[in-house]
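Researcher: Good morning. I'm working through a list of sequences from a screen, and I'd like to move beyond sequence-only analysis. For each chain I'm collecting a predicted structure so we can compare shapes side by side. This is the next one on the list. No need for commentary yet; just the structure.
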Amino acid sequence: MVHLAVRVEDVEATVEALVAATDCPVTNGPLTIEAAGARAAFVEDPDGYEVEIFSPLE
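Model: Good morning. Structure tokens for this chain:
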């Protein structure tokens, strides 16, 4: 699986803003990925590509 990952300060706020602005589908999350040390969510762009929105855990 190939996808683009974007680091943000606040995963939940970013996903909420993306959905409000573009109505993009959230395909997974937000969730905590302990093994990666990150909080992440996955959304689909208009062309069907998966985009990961993530923030390192504190």
